Amino acid sequence: TLVLLSVYFIFFSSRLAIRGSARNGFIAGSISGICGGLMSIGGPPMVAYYLAATSSKEEYNATLQAYFVLSTAYIFFTHVALGHVTVQILSWGIWALLGLAAGTFCGLRLFDRLSAAGLKKLVCGFMAAVGIYLVITG
Fold it and tell me: Which residues of the chain have pLDDT under 50?
Protein backbone atom coordinates (compact mmCIF):
# COMPACT_ATOMS: atom_id res chain seq x y z
CA THR A 1 0.00 0.00 0.00
CA LEU A 2 2.76 2.43 0.90
CA VAL A 3 4.74 1.66 -2.22
CA LEU A 4 1.64 2.07 -4.41
CA LEU A 5 0.80 5.40 -2.76
CA SER A 6 4.32 6.69 -3.27
CA VAL A 7 4.38 5.59 -6.93
CA TYR A 8 1.03 7.29 -7.48
CA PHE A 9 2.20 10.56 -5.98
CA ILE A 10 5.54 10.53 -7.78
CA PHE A 11 4.18 9.73 -11.26
CA PHE A 12 0.43 10.39 -11.42
CA SER A 13 -0.60 13.00 -8.85
CA SER A 14 -0.25 15.87 -11.32
CA ARG A 15 -2.93 14.28 -13.52
CA LEU A 16 -5.54 13.80 -10.80
CA ALA A 17 -6.18 16.43 -8.13
CA ILE A 18 -7.77 15.50 -4.83
CA ARG A 19 -9.65 18.44 -3.37
CA GLY A 20 -9.96 19.05 0.32
CA SER A 21 -13.61 18.46 1.19
CA ALA A 22 -15.65 16.86 3.96
CA ARG A 23 -16.45 13.90 1.69
CA ASN A 24 -12.84 13.32 0.64
CA GLY A 25 -11.63 13.82 4.21
CA PHE A 26 -14.16 11.24 5.43
CA ILE A 27 -13.02 8.76 2.77
CA ALA A 28 -9.33 9.30 3.58
CA GLY A 29 -10.06 9.09 7.32
CA SER A 30 -12.01 5.85 6.85
CA ILE A 31 -9.17 4.30 4.86
CA SER A 32 -6.74 5.53 7.50
CA GLY A 33 -8.83 3.97 10.28
CA ILE A 34 -9.05 0.64 8.49
CA CYS A 35 -5.30 0.61 7.78
CA GLY A 36 -4.58 1.65 11.36
CA GLY A 37 -6.82 -1.03 12.81
CA LEU A 38 -5.58 -3.81 10.55
CA MET A 39 -1.92 -2.99 10.07
CA SER A 40 -1.05 -0.14 12.48
CA ILE A 41 -0.20 2.14 9.55
CA GLY A 42 -3.05 4.64 9.62
CA GLY A 43 -0.92 7.68 8.83
CA PRO A 44 -0.02 7.15 5.15
CA PRO A 45 -3.54 7.58 3.73
CA MET A 46 -3.84 10.89 5.56
CA VAL A 47 -0.33 11.93 4.51
CA ALA A 48 -1.32 11.24 0.90
CA TYR A 49 -4.66 13.06 1.25
CA TYR A 50 -3.18 16.14 2.92
CA LEU A 51 -0.29 16.23 0.44
CA ALA A 52 -2.84 16.50 -2.37
CA ALA A 53 -5.49 18.62 -0.63
CA THR A 54 -3.40 21.41 0.91
CA SER A 55 -2.07 24.41 -0.96
CA SER A 56 1.28 25.01 0.76
CA LYS A 57 3.88 23.02 2.62
CA GLU A 58 3.11 24.98 5.81
CA GLU A 59 -0.61 24.19 5.54
CA TYR A 60 0.26 20.54 4.87
CA ASN A 61 2.52 20.33 7.90
CA ALA A 62 0.12 22.08 10.28
CA THR A 63 -2.86 20.02 9.13
CA LEU A 64 -0.96 16.75 9.35
CA GLN A 65 0.42 17.58 12.81
CA ALA A 66 -3.06 18.48 14.07
CA TYR A 67 -4.40 15.19 12.68
CA PHE A 68 -1.68 13.18 14.44
CA VAL A 69 -2.21 14.98 17.76
CA LEU A 70 -5.95 14.29 17.67
CA SER A 71 -5.67 10.70 16.46
CA THR A 72 -2.87 9.83 18.90
CA ALA A 73 -4.83 11.32 21.82
CA TYR A 74 -7.91 9.32 20.78
CA ILE A 75 -5.92 6.08 20.53
CA PHE A 76 -4.10 6.72 23.82
CA PHE A 77 -7.28 7.38 25.80
CA THR A 78 -8.93 4.35 24.22
CA HIS A 79 -6.05 2.22 25.48
CA VAL A 80 -6.30 3.86 28.91
CA ALA A 81 -10.03 3.06 29.05
CA LEU A 82 -9.33 -0.56 28.04
CA GLY A 83 -6.70 -0.89 30.79
CA HIS A 84 -3.75 -1.40 28.44
CA VAL A 85 -1.64 1.46 29.85
CA THR A 86 0.59 0.58 32.79
CA VAL A 87 3.10 2.57 34.85
CA GLN A 88 5.93 0.83 32.99
CA ILE A 89 4.48 1.85 29.63
CA LEU A 90 4.14 5.44 30.83
CA SER A 91 7.79 5.46 31.97
CA TRP A 92 8.89 4.23 28.52
CA GLY A 93 6.66 6.90 27.01
CA ILE A 94 8.64 9.66 28.71
CA TRP A 95 11.80 8.48 26.95
CA ALA A 96 9.90 8.24 23.69
CA LEU A 97 8.66 11.83 24.11
CA LEU A 98 12.25 13.02 24.57
CA GLY A 99 13.19 11.29 21.32
CA LEU A 100 10.13 12.77 19.66
CA ALA A 101 11.15 16.27 20.74
CA ALA A 102 14.68 15.81 19.36
CA GLY A 103 13.35 14.40 16.10
CA THR A 104 10.79 17.20 15.76
CA PHE A 105 13.49 19.82 16.25
CA CYS A 106 15.66 18.27 13.52
CA GLY A 107 12.68 17.70 11.23
CA LEU A 108 11.48 21.29 11.46
CA ARG A 109 14.95 22.57 10.58
CA LEU A 110 14.96 20.35 7.49
CA PHE A 111 11.36 21.31 6.68
CA ASP A 112 12.29 25.01 6.54
CA ARG A 113 14.97 24.27 3.94
CA LEU A 114 12.78 22.15 1.64
CA SER A 115 10.72 23.46 -1.23
CA ALA A 116 7.17 22.15 -1.68
CA ALA A 117 8.41 19.89 -4.50
CA GLY A 118 11.31 18.69 -2.37
CA LEU A 119 8.95 17.93 0.51
CA LYS A 120 6.71 15.89 -1.80
CA LYS A 121 9.70 13.88 -3.07
CA LEU A 122 10.94 13.28 0.48
CA VAL A 123 7.51 12.16 1.71
CA CYS A 124 7.02 9.82 -1.27
CA GLY A 125 10.53 8.41 -0.97
CA PHE A 126 10.07 7.78 2.74
CA MET A 127 6.70 6.08 2.19
CA ALA A 128 8.24 3.84 -0.49
CA ALA A 129 11.22 2.95 1.72
CA VAL A 130 8.98 2.08 4.69
CA GLY A 131 6.69 0.06 2.41
CA ILE A 132 9.61 -1.93 1.02
CA TYR A 133 10.96 -2.48 4.55
CA LEU A 134 7.58 -3.78 5.72
CA VAL A 135 7.32 -6.14 2.75
CA ILE A 136 10.81 -7.52 3.42
CA THR A 137 10.43 -7.90 7.21
CA GLY A 138 6.83 -9.08 7.08
Answer: none
